[in-house]
Each structure stands twice: as structure tokens, then as C-alpha cells.
Amino acid sequence: MANPVFSNSPVFGEDKRRGGGTVYAQSSTTYSTVDAATLDDLYAAPAATTRETGRLTYDDVIMKTGGLLALLVVVGAATWALAPGLWIAGAVVGLVLGLVNAFKREPSPVLITLYTVAQGVFLGGISAFYEAAYRGIVSQAVLGTVAVAASALFVFKSGKVRVTPKFTRWLVLAMVGYLVFSLLNVVLMIAGVGGGDFGPLRNGGLGILVGLFAVGLAAASFIVDFDAIKRGVEGGAPRKMAWAAAFGLIVTLVWLYLEILRILAIFRN
């Protein structure tokens, strides 16, 4: 998978529809003797739902994602109003916790929550900076982020784009290329080569094209993430994996928001 949050998971990282994944079964207790009345009651009882058996559901993912997103917004708003200068600390802590969570085999609700808080501090501070320089840019970036994420979900639900191994390989290669390009831009900025607010390779027309390419990658990453979540639900993954799914979606949302914010700032310049 392109998103390490999903690709390193023993649940989301394998395609169970092709027989490569793990089938999760709930433990049961076998009784040596069962009377006729008990058997009648068992047969008459309704089938257990996925929630009752402790398996992952879409509602679990939605609730966890919504909760983390609400926390992100609240922390971001507080940082914007009280201490926007803390955005650097939030960025560093968020990066470290993001890497730790991405490569953990089992999700940690505490670490995922702390990551969300750190990203809230980072986004709140950096958003305040952008808003001070370009009035109204944050609301535009939020609307753009919601529009792209919703469009990716619509495309996935429509079935017009299928997540095949070829599609996944293309996305991985494209994201690696984008990462190398971004690191090169940072190195040039540190070395003082070129100019501009976003580095020599992320300004003007080239910066807009690169930003649009990154937005496309984020949208494709959403589609792959949705497919991974679907396979987790259909494969009977444990309910605790909703934390991993929510974390992966938050990571992509943050990346998408920052890219759109940068594109809008380049247009303003």
C-alpha cells in the first residue's frame, strides 16, 4: 500500500479477496452438554452483528476519524488564538509520532491521540501565519481539502477507479518521486540556492504544477486507503484497527490541506 499506515498493518496491508490475508475468527466456547430448550433458543436468536462479535465496522472507522478530526480542529483553533509560535514544536513532535504510529504493528490509541494533538498545534500555528499573510486563505484551503476528499470517496464508491496492484505500484513510485523532489527542494533552500518562500523548486508556475500533482497523489492515496478499510471490514478485522484506519485518514488529510494551502499562497503571490 502507498500509505505506510495501511501497508505495514497485518490487517489492511494484504488483500483478503485474493486469498493473501488473514481471516479473523472470534473465539467460541464449546459446551459438552446442551439441552433441547437451549438449542431452540440459540436457533431462534438473531445472528450476531459485527459489532457484537468485536469486528471492525464502518461506523467504528467513522467515529474514530470524526473524533480525531474534532480534536485536531479544537487544538488547532486554540494554538492559533493563544500560541501560534508553537507550530515548529508541533511539526517536530508530529513527525516523530507519525513515524512511530505508522510502523507499529498494533495501533496505540494514546500515541495516535498525541499525534493528533501535535498536528493540531502545527496546523493551528502555520494556518495563523498564512492567514496573516493572505486573508481568507485558510477557509479556502479547508473547503478545497473537503472537496478533494469527498471527490475521492465518490470516485471510490462509484467503482470507476479500481485499486489494482498496478495502480498501487504506480502510486508508490509517484510518491517516492515526489518525496525525493521535496527533499531536493529543502536541501537547495538550506544551501541558499534560488529564492522564493517555498524553495527554488516550489515557486511560480512550477510550484503550482508540483502542488497540483501532490494533490492528485493525495486523492489517489485516499482511494487506496478507502479500499484498505473496505478489505479490513469485509475480512473481519478486530475493532481496534479502527484506530489505525482513522490515523491513516488523518495523515492524508493533513498532507492534502498543506498542499492546497501552499498552492493558494503561490497563486496569491
From TrEMBL:
InterPro entries: BaxI_1-like. The chain crosses the membrane at residues 61-80, 86-103, 110-130, 136-156, 168-194, 206-229, 241-267. Keywords: Membrane, Transmembrane, Transmembrane helix. Residues 1-10 have a biased composition (Polar residues). Residues 1-20 are annotated as: Disordered. Pfam families: BaxI_1 (PF12811). This is Membrane protein. It comes from Cellulomonas uda.
